């Protein structure tokens, strides 16, 4: 597994790092994003760069970034988290109801929301470790349960009478940069620090990269799986807070469309599904790219379905393109064979 | 060394060929299918006791069996890709894609019922084969490819419905479709003896799919090659199995079954619209995995897919009758999945301990 | 007598249906190189896992410097001072050499990794075993031998007093092996006890001081000085009966008809240049070379898994172009017994009957692809009987068999398909001596019946026993060829001369030594 985008210690290896990065997924993504921004700016005759649209753009970028990161953390240890959207939606619903119906203060509710999401993430992890059932199935089940629970909490209504302070925070934008976006960026930065420099983060990656080696070095893979799901839960909790703060109201559909983007961002960003790799910047850029597609769609007033279609095509293009580039660098495929050995095709 | 087998294993008769998984060498009470069967019957009896209406043929059993038929086909669509160690996250979208072609055929080309179905199946097979081809050709994980496929089809199908129809649905129905939806075995009579009015005619598709796949996995070369491709792709390739082609076969077959399920769902609801199949992903995994199909490939259970789906649907229906809100049902379904799998795990652990102790 | 570091008494470990260890004793002394020997399935791996805390023992006692200990995890064992270098590569691919070495206790400040402080201990550990590597290199870029040395350095980092090396030379070239031995001796000299597990007795006798031999989960020889035993004594102890080295019945090969396989001037995309060799009907041709010589890669190119860029392949005289293993099998009757049994050879989670008949379904299939189960079973049962595979039933999973029996299953599928040419890649690696012997007889017999065999092996003894001719490869080129006169000393001399009888590798790639 040759993951090109783990930034190493810059102090000791600046030059190789730059060389590595010049060909990494992140650089490619950055280029695509810049070109996309420029294209959109031209197409909208500069409107896209106006203060107002930049703010809106970033406002609704916060949640996709966070859910992408939440999924990435699970992928780090080779797990999948299908419950991203359901947990986010459930947490948002609980927070909204607590504020609107129980009139609890906003700070208490936000803390409670984060705690609930983290706790559910942790329980998921514990369950996976305790029963040894595939994480895919477990999170599929928790997803179902949380969807039901979310409906139980909000029912058919849209809860919007909650803390105006939170909504004010949600729409606050010092220097024209929305607070929620700053929250997401700060979270991403902390996560990057944690993954690259933190002992716990390195353990997480070691367990994902080679579980046996990790175990023999005294790193409990079980604990790392629990940690990954816990962290994933926490990030989803933050995403639920930003969503609640940004959205006009919370209903049973919040989180319903999070699952696919949560996978798309890390996969486009260059994270391997097999675990052991991490790409915080790549994930953020990929979320940015998807937001760009959405904005472009609105700019040209196309059917919202175009976004899904295009994201699907982009994901497919990214992975296929990446694979083709890789195989061209490594060893040419046998030209005569119509279908090369699909050894790694699982 | 043969000493790792639990009891002095008798030369097993080949009847269990398709489920020769790890459970094959554990005591009989660990048999997943048997357990499921007993559970389904027991639950049905329990619900029947609590709410005698559960056994109402026309209003409860008929729709229940219709649902089971459709979702069994969905579970089979997932099972086929699981057999090669892959996943199909786009199973629902492939269903809506296939159904769209059927609707298009009826609406624009005024095709008869059977030709529309054929068109639907061809479309599903083609889209499945495309997914399989991309996976085999690039070696990218099936999870990613079908996820992307799901996105793309989600967008594409809605776009096409918007472009082709006025109110996002094909409502033209060919002759015979209404009958297919509402007829039961009671409408088929051999002389004076008629079938039960609880069993929908829609069930014939599910039975056909079950028999077909049962034959495929138990008796044919292709079925065995699919399983071995799932068990160990590298060894399969070196043993002369066309693994690339088998991966395409599996995904094409999955697309075909998904499209069939989409058609069945459309027949049940009476119209062809983009939302068909939107709920298929969860049941597809529920049915297949509860039935004993391994996510890692190499082991499938055709009958298990039926039993797993039945279990889920019986619970769903029973709770519904007991007055549990439809949306809250999800909470219990997720719980059932976890419970069932945990119980399975516990049974395995217990029998493992017993074997250890007797050594 | 020097200090006893670790002692095991009457250790018992039970798995479902098998007592893997049944009263094993072992005494490891400081400064000794201790050989742990035994056939496959004798319990070596289990013993290592018990010693390193992976499995708790079900009975018996472990003493560390005279005090009873009980390891609940590998970490506890490692903290006590027991390090292990496993057959599996225990490195995290995405991490640097330094981070891998320090994985167990990375230098840190307030929960943050201190990368600068990591290099120093890593360099110290590498220097201790005389290895010059940049600690910042990602381990993904290292060779197998380098990775192994990094693993040893990693064990040094945890200050292991007892270091277990599980088949460390399995994928090393002789030079690399010699280098490893130097490291082992150096470690012993500084008071470490090195436990050396290997199937290669020559290596054991070259480097070890004391020996423990396991058979059927019991120690038949408990920590005795190796010098008191001969090669044959040890083999007898392992096998449990007198090991015969009687010759095999003579056999002739068909020199009249065109060779079953003939390569002339073949170059491949994998990097082979100008390879020529031929295998006649009924002949065993050895393909010898060091690890990395490109032998397995050549076999895979013949099977169509890599592109042939120049030259010609003839099968029974007809020029062919093979695109895939299935074409090789179904059209040309070429089978390949892989060296990588568990990953490429057998389907561990599948019944034996399927493992054997996988190659013949195409032949057995009737209309609609229907494969009659009766014929399928008959085919498998026939081969199980012919090869003497020990199973409890045809539905038994292949993964439950011992290594040797798995290898036989892996061979059986090619015999089922009536292949006319068999490429056999390292058939007896990791197979115990008794099975090895049976395997040699089997291959010999098959050749006697007219099968053409291309035997790839790094085991010179195996080459000398089996091959009619030996082709020597090095650096993806053919270095020469020699007839086999079945005299070990003579042959090893000739082959070593062929390997070294040319300037440094890769300096003049165009040069080629004629035989």
UniProtKB/TrEMBL annotation, chain A:
GO cellular-component term (any): plasma membrane
Name of the protein: ABC transporter permease
The keyword Transmembrane is annotated on this UniProt entry: yes
Compartment annotation: Cell membrane
Pfam families on file: BPD_transp_2
Topology in the lipid bilayer: Multi-pass membrane protein
Membrane spanning stretches: 28-45, 57-75, 82-100, 106-129, 136-153, 173-194, 225-247, 267-293
Species of the source: Streptomyces beijiangensis
Keywords assigned by UniProt, alphabetized: Cell membrane, Membrane, Transmembrane, Transmembrane helix
GO MF annotations, alphabetized: transmembrane transporter activity
TrEMBL record, chain B:
Matches recorded under Pfam families: BPD_transp_2
Gene Ontology terms, MF aspect: transmembrane transporter activity
Listed name of the protein: ABC transporter permease
Transmembrane regions listed in the UniProt entry: 34-54, 60-82, 112-136, 143-164, 202-219, 247-268, 280-307, 319-341
Keyword NADP applies: no
Mode of membrane association: Multi-pass membrane protein
PANTHER family xrefs: ABC TRANSPORTER PERMEASE PROTEIN YPHD-RELATED-RELATED, INNER MEMBRANE ABC TRANSPORTER PERMEASE PROTEIN YJFF
Keywords: Cell membrane, Membrane, Transmembrane, Transmembrane helix
Subcellular location: Cell membrane
Lineage of source species: Bacteria, Bacillati, Actinomycetota, Actinomycetes, Kitasatosporales
Region named Disordered: 1-20
Signal peptide range: none
GO cellular component: plasma membrane
Main location: membrane
InterPro entries recorded: ABC_transp_permease (IPR001851)
Organism: Streptomyces beijiangensis
From TrEMBL, chain C:
Stored InterPro entries: AAA+_ATPase, ABC_carbohydrate_import_ATPase, ABC_transporter-like_ATP-bd, ABC_transporter-like_CS, P-loop_NTPase
ABC transporter domain: residues covered: 6-241, 250-500
Gene3D superfamilies named in the record: P-loop containing nucleotide triphosphate hydrolases
Gene Ontology CC terms: plasma membrane
Superkingdom to which the source organism belongs: Bacteria
Compartment(s): Cell membrane
Annotated protein name in UniProt: Sugar ABC transporter ATP-binding protein
PANTHER family: CARBOHYDRATE TRANSPORT ATP-BINDING PROTEIN MG119-RELATED, D-ALLOSE IMPORT ATP-BINDING PROTEIN ALSA-RELATED
Pfam families in alphabetical order: ABC_tran (PF00005)
Originating species: Streptomyces beijiangensis
Membrane topology category: Peripheral membrane protein
Record bears the keyword Membrane: yes
Keyword tags: ATP-binding, Cell membrane, Membrane, Nucleotide-binding, Repeat, Sugar transport, Translocase, Transport
């Amino acid at each position: 597994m040759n993951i090109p985008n783990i930034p190493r210690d810059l102090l000791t290896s600046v030059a190789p790092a730059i060389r590595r990065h010049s060909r990494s997924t992140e650089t490619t993504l950055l280029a695509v994003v810049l070109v996309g921004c420029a294209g959109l700016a031209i197409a909208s005759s500069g409107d896209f760069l106006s203060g107002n649209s930049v703010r809106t753009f970033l406002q609704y970028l916060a949640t996709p970034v966070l859910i992408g990161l939440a999924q990435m953390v699970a992928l780090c240890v080779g797990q999948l988290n299908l419950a991203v959207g359901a947990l986010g939606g459930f947490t948002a619903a609980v927070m909204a109801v607590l504020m609107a119906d129980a009139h609890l203060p906003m700070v208490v509710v936000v803390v409670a929301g984060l705690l609930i999401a983290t706790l559910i993430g942790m329980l998921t992890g514990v369950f996976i470790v305790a029963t040894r059932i595939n994480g895919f199935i477990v999170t599929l089940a928790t997803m179902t349960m949380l969807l039901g629970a979310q409906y139980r909490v909000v029912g058919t209504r849209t809860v919007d009478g909650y803390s105006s302070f939170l909504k004010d925070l949600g729409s606050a934008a010092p220097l024209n940069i929305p607070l929620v976006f700053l929250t997401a960026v700060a979270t991403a930065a902390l996560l990057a620090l944690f993954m690259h420099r933190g002992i716990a983060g390195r353990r997480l990656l070691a367990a994902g990269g080679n579980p046996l080696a990790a175990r023999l070095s005294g790193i409990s893979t079980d604990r790392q799986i629990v940690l990954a799901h816990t962290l994933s839960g926490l990030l989803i909790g933050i995403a639920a807070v930003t969503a609640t703060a940004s959205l006009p109201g919370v209903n049973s559909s919040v989180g319903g469309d999070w699952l696919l983007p949560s996978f798309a961002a890390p996969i486009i960003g260059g994270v391997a599904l097999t675990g052991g790799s991490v790409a915080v910047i790549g994930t953020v850029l990929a979320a940015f790219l998807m937001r760009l597609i959405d904005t472009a769609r609105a700019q040209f007033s196309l059917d919202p379905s175009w976004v899904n279609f295009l994201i699907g095509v982009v994901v497919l293009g990214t992975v296929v393109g990446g694979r083709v580039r890789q195989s061209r660098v490594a060893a040419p495929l046998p030209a005569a064979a119509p279908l090369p050995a699909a050894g790694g095709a699982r | 060394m043969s000493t790792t087998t639990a009891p002095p294993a008798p030369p097993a008769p080949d009847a269990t060929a398709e489920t020769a998984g790890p459970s094959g060498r554990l005591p009989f009470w660990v048999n997943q299918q048997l357990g499921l069967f007993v559970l389904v019957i027991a639950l049905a009896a329990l619900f029947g006791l609590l709410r005698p209406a559960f056994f109402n043929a026309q209003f409860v059993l008929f729709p229940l069996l219709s649902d089971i038929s459709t979702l069994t086909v969905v579970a089979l669509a997932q099972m086929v890709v699981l057999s090669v160690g892959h996943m199909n996250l786009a199973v629902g979208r492939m269903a809506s894609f296939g159904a769209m072609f059927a609707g298009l055929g009826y609406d624009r080309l005024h095709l008869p019922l059977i030709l529309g179905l054929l068109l639907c199946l061809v479309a599903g097979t083609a889209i499945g084969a495309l997914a399989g081809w991309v996976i085999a050709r690039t070696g990218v994980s099936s999870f990613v490819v079908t996820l992307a496929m799901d996105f793309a089809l989600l967008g594409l199908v809605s776009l096409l419905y918007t472009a082709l129809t006025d109110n996002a649905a094909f409502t033209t129905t060919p002759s015979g479709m209404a009958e297919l939806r509402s007829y039961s075995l009671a409408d088929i009579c051999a002389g004076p003896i008629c079938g039960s009015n609880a069993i929908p005619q829609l069930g014939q598709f599910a039975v056909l799919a079950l028999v077909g796949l049962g034959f495929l996995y138990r008796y044919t070369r292709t079925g065995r090659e699919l399983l071995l491709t799932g068990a160990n792709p590298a060894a399969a390739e070196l043993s002369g199995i066309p693994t690339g082609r088998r991966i395409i076969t599996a995904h094409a077959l999955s697309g075909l079954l998904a499209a069939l399920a989409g058609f069945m769902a459309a027949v049940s609801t009476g119209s062809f619209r983009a939302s068909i199949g939107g709920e298929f992903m969860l049941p597809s995994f529920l049915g297949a995995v509860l039935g004993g199909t391994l996510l890692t490939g190499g082991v499938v259970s055709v009958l298990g897919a039926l039993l797993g789906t039945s279990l889920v649907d019986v619970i769903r229906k029973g709770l519904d009758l007991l007055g549990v809100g439809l949306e809250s049902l999800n909470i219990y379904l997720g719980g059932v999945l976890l419970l069932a799998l945990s119980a399975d795990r516990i049974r395995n652990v217990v029998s493992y301990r017993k074997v250890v102790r007797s050594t | 007598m020097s200090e006893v570091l670790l002692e095991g008494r009457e250790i018992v470990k039970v798995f479902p249906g098998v007592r893997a260890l049944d009263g094993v004793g072992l005494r490891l002394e400081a400064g000794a190189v201790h050989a742990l020997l035994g056939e496959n399935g004798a319990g070596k791996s289990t013993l290592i896992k018990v010693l390193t805390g992976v499995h708790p023992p079900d009975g018996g006692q472990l003493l560390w410097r005279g005090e009873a200990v009980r390891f609940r995890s590998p970490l506890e064992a490692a903290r006590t001072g027991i390090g292990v270098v496993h057959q599996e590569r225990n490195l995290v691919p995405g991490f640097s050499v330094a981070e891998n070495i320090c994985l167990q206790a990375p230098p840190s400040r307030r929960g943050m990794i201190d990368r600068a402080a990591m290099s120093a201990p890593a360099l110290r550990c590498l220097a201790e075993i005389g290895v010059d590597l940049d600690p910042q290199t990602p381990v993904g870029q290292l060779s197998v031998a380098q990775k192994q040395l990094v693993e040893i350095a990693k064990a040094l980092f945890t200050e292991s007093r007892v270091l277990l090396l599980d088949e460390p030379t399995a994928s090393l070239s002789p030079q690399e092996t010699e280098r490893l031995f130097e490291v082992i001796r150096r470690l012993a000299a500084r008071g470490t006890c090195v436990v050396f597990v290997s199937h290669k007795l020559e290596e054991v006798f070259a480097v070890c001081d004391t020996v423990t031999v396991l058979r059927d989960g019991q120690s038949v020889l408990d920590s005795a000085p190796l010098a008191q035993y001969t090669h044959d004594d040890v083999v007898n102890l392992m096998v449990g009966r007198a090991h015969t080295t009687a010759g095999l019945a003579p056999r002739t090969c068909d020199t009249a008809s065109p060779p079953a396989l003939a390569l002339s001037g073949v170059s491949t995309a994998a990097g082979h240049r100008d390879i020529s060799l031929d295998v006649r009907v009924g002949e065993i041709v050895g393909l010898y070379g060091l690890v990395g010589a490109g032998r397995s890669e050549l076999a895979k190119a013949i099977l169509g898994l890599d592109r042939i860029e120049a030259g010609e392949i003839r099968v029974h005289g007809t020029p062919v172009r093979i695109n895939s293993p299935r074409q090789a099998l179904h059209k040309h009757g070429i089978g390949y017994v892989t060296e990588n049994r568990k990953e490429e050879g057998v389907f561990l989670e599948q019944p034996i009957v399927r493992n054997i008949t996988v190659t013949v379904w195409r032949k057995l299939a009737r209309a609609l692809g229907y494969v009659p189960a009766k014929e399928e079973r008959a085919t498998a049962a026939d081969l199980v009987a012919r090869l003497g595979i020990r199973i409890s039933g045809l539905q038994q999973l292949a993964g439950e068999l011992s290594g040797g029996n798995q290898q036989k299953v892996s061979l059986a599928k090619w015999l089922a398909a009536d292949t006319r040419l068999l490429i056999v890649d390292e058939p007896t690696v990791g197979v115990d001596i008794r099975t090895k012997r049976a395997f040699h007889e089997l291959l010999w017999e098959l050749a006697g019946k007219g099968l053409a065999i291309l035997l790839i092996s790094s085991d010179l003894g195996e080459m000398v026993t089996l091959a009619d001719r030996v082709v020597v490869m090095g650096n993806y080129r053919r270095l020469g060829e020699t007839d086999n006169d079945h005299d070990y000393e003579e042959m090893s001399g000739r082959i070593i001369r062929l390997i070294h009888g040319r300037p440094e590798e890769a300096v003049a790639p165009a040069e080629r030594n004629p035989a």
